[in-house]
Amino acid sequence: MTDLLETPTFKKPFEAAPLSADVEIVPAIEPLKIVQRPFFIEARELLILAGPVVVTQLTQMGIGTIDVLMLGAYSKDALAASALGLSLYYAMWVLAMGPAVAVQPMIAHILGADRSNMISVRHAVRMALWAIIAITPFQIAFLWYAGDMLKAIGQPEDLAANAGLFVQMLAYGFVFTTAFNVLRGYATALSRPNAPLIVMGLTIAFNAIVAYALIFGHFGAPRMGLMGAGIASAASFAFSFIAMLGVIFLTPDLARYKIFSDFLTPHWASFKEVIRLGMPIALTIIFEAMFFNVGTMMMGYFGTDSVAAHQVALNVVALLFMVPLGVATAATVRIGLAAGAGDEARIRRAGGAAMLISLSFMSLMGIVLALAAPSIIGLYLDADLPENAEVIALAVLFLRIGAAFQIFDTMQVVASLSLRGLKDANAPMWIAGASYWLVGTPLAWFLAFHLKMQGMGVWIAFVIALAIAGIAMYVRFIHLAKVDWRAAFRRH
């Protein structure tokens, strides 16, 4: 708890340090440009890095979206089973994300302090991969019994059994998807986000073809339905990792760090830092992910229609969320570079620009969701089928509530990843734990079951918990970075 009260200190730049390459000398006769230029230069650099990251996030989400769309066309029972299975799968996936995402701030701080320090970058990547290799066997063992666990908490037997089979197929690709995220973080931290973008573009095409074949039995493949979707996703995870390796070796700016050189040689200082940063980050992510997964579990008590509607609405909101997540990921790198160089003014500008850009976009999307919810849901489910009527009505309701909670979700992710750029991992962990589990989960249960609001109550609890988390994390960032919106627009 003492970490909540501590303020990280940043190294001051060397005397007579050159100006950042991002900052231009502006003549005194252009007072308007003097006021605007530093902030908007930072916003431009942030967007240049964030653009490919956002598209990569969207394409990575595309794998799950393809499964949702195809399974929705296959049957609503298969769609509901996939939703329950994914609720457990992603719990393990986000736990493994801790070491993967710890790579970004570590590399950013290293390069911010010394652009030529290739050895430390290599150590960071290598030890992150070590951490992944160490923890994934336990997670795969957990996933193998997903169906039994779902039955144990009272989920319908057929639904739980199908969900368990789906997760077992996904488990075969688990180590590949987590290792891919380490390599992706490495490329992004080096400001080479196009590398993972290329890989994910190829992966989504691969997944679409294999899923189409195995779910519906095309191209001579057996008709496997839900099991086919799991096999296709696992194969796609392996494909993405192998393709990412190839892109790294073929990209000179990435290959020159020789991240696999002396791979079996430990560097315990870097390994400890991966764990020190990675585990609180993982717990922060898992607190939020499991909060949403518990919401999915609650939906199971209200029937297949509620689960399917919840899955569709959550998928729409999650797709839009990839934009602020991509911007926030870029902010982690930009803030980490500034912190490594001791440039506190640039820390403030990067954090402010990320928040302004993300909230502006999601506010606009909130209006679109509120007005066009029926048309959006119609892309997932056939409105002409009578058996889909209840699912569509619920999904429209959830999506309109989602138009509100995505604003707060944006605030919390930008603030959390900005803090990550400062290597402040413990405070976001405590805030997430309190917001989602001391407030959000009990509130969801109370609204859904005691006030008999069912799925609507769960989604209202999402809004309130995210609002608490978003505001608290942003206040934390303001405290550490001494954010002043007026000062953000001044020349430093």
Contiguous uncertain segments of 5+ residues: 1-35
**How would you classify the helix and strand content by structural class?**
mainly alpha
Strand fraction equals under 5%
Please report the number of helical segments.
Answer: 16
What brief labels describe this structure?
492 residues; mainly alpha; 16 helices; globular; disordered N terminus
Give structural notes:
The chain is an all-alpha fold and 492 residues long. The chain has one domain. The protein is 80% helix and 0% strand. The chain has 16 helices and no strands. It has helices spanning 31-74, 76-113, 118-143, 146-152, 157-171, 174-189, 194-216, 226-250, 252-255, 268-300, 304-341, 344-377, 389-421, 426-450, 454-481, 485-488. The radius of gyration is 23 Å and the shape is globular. Mean pLDDT is 83; it is low at 1-35.
The gist of it:
The chain is built from 16 helices and no strands. The protein has about 500 residues and is mainly alpha-helical.
Please outline the helices and strands.
Blueprint: H1 31-74, H2 76-113, H3 118-143, H4 146-152, H5 157-171, H6 174-189, H7 194-216, H8 226-250, H9 252-255, H10 268-300, H11 304-341, H12 344-377, H13 389-421, H14 426-450, H15 454-481, H16 485-488
